[in-house]
Amino acid sequence: MAQQATPQITRIDRYVYEIPPRGEMRVPARIYADEEVIQALTAPATQEWSALQQLVNVASLPGIQRAALAMADVHPGYGFPIGGVAAFDPSDGVISVAGVGFDINCGVRLLRTELARADLAGKEERVADALFQDVPAGLGSTGELRLTEQEIDRVLREGASYAVRLGYGTPDDLTYIEENGQLAGADPAQVSRTAKQRQLRQVGTLGSGNHFVEVQVVDEIFDEEAARAFGLERGQITVMLHTGSRALGHQIGTDYLPILERAAKKYGIPIRERELVCAPIDSPEGRQYYAAVMAGANCAFANRQVLTHLVREALRHALGVDPATIRTVYEVAHNTVKFELHEVDGQRKRLLVHRKGATRAFGPGRPEIPERYRAVGQPVLVGGTMGTASYVLRGTERGMRETFGSALHGAGRATSRTKAKKAFPADRVVHQLRERGIIVRAHGRASISEEAPGAYKDVEQVVDIMSGAGIVAKVARLRPLVTIKG
Question: What pTM did the predictor assign?
Answer without folding.
Answer: 0.95
